[in-house]
Request: fold
Amino acid sequence: MAKIGKYVIDSLTRSMYEDSRCIYREYIQNAADQIDLAREQHLDDNDYYEIHVRIFRNQKKIEIEDTATGVSVSNRETLKDVATSQKKRGKQKGFRGIGRLGGLGYCSKLTFETSYMDENVKTLMHWDAAKMNRIVDDEMDESEAGNVIDDCTSFEEQIEAVDKHYFKVILENVTDDRLLDVNNIRDYLSMVAPVDYPTQFGVFSSQIKRYIQCNNIVLDVYNLYVGDEYGEEQIYKGYTTKIKDVRNGDYDIKSIKIIDRKDSNGNLIYWGWYSISELRGQIPANNIAYGIRLRCKNIQVGDERTCRNFFLAEGDKRFSQYFFGELHVETPDLMPDARRDYLRECEYRSIFERMVRSDFSTLKDLCNEASNIRGIIKRITEADKGTQDIEKKRESGSFLSPKEIEDDNEKYERYKEKKKKAINQLEKKKQETNRNNSPLGFIYDTMPEPNPVLSSVTNGSIGSYDNAFSDIPTSLCENDKPIAEDEPQPKLRTDDNIYKKFGVKEKNVINIVYNAIYNAIADEVMREGLIKKIEKELTK
Reply:
């Protein structure tokens, strides 16, 4: 008979998961399977069952309890078994019989407390995790895995009410502080655990549920509560209708897109959905929901970055996080691997990946389309800002020289042409969007209204600005009115009242100085700072 060494224990506990929070997922997964069994047996009249996660930070203690079937006294020895689960592959969420060991890597004592319906006793199985780790780390100790488990476990029985049925996992002297952060665990489980969509996801929750109902899909959801000694709150999926963006401002989810694939027999392979927004970039990580998540039996597989790998080009992987959403595996041909990092290697996995890559190519196209639209709108906005700056200078009389008037006229012509070209591009893009039935059509309704285009000004002689404006139209419309004769004419800076003590010749000298500064200093802020200093000295 083959010998199973003690180091397999280390592989299944301390070395099993990169993220210690995965132990919550494993225990909740086990609880969900027992709740499914309790529902089949109609263990309670109302078939209402709960999972409770209680975190006691000061005591460094965690309790995870379900109100499902529990384990009978006659089956208590199965709690020591490793990788000998009685669960059915493809039907139940867990099936390898190793998840219950996860907590051993993060506490000094692990206890399973359970009671079975119609039994007046509860069983407590204690795991001395600290002792187990000492044995595993002792290189001189050659114990086999089974002997180590027997040496580090013990049973205890206590009286319990006959109508009680539950299973509780208790971790004491928890060594990882991350596991004791109740808010962090709430956020984590809202994206990982098999819970329902929140009411605050509004019409999108209803849309997903209608799809599920119309396609006879079973979405497993459970009543999960997470809290501490001060109270608990029910956990729902962490989706909202708004994306928080501290840098650029918050923005809304406008719609969702549902996708699915079926085999030749009409059996569902996978289904999913993703958010449709302005697609400004990768959703900031301060949002609970970001990235498309792979799920099996409504439990997350991997993390928020797993679906990035459905984009082949490295530079395209970022597009996965322009969205949030879910990809639910439905075919029994695909199952999560032991760590639940991804799907188990099999021939069908390659077929699945090709399908998803094809669907995800649409995500890339949407991101590029949104980027193109934003780029056009940005060019219109920049042209508007440029014309507004010219208008402000015209109204304030801040031109330094006729040369500056001439330069601004040229700038205006460039702004006008840039805006005209961008508006034409935007119209073509809008027609293309409508023709392709793109979900991004709403972006055109959110763009700023273009400002009317300004008239050019001439650089007539200093002090005389008759006929200063050309007959260039004030907007891009065909029937624009010519500029009114009584509109303010451009003035040089020296025409301001603060220069009234100077004569024409003196003003000409000042204009020559200002013109020299204008030609010599390209930086507008630096130039204006210097002129203001000169102006202050001249006019005080």
In short: The chain is about 35% helix and 15% strand. Confidence is low (pLDDT under 50) at residues 457-485. The longest helix spans residues 347-396. The longest strand covers residues 268-276.
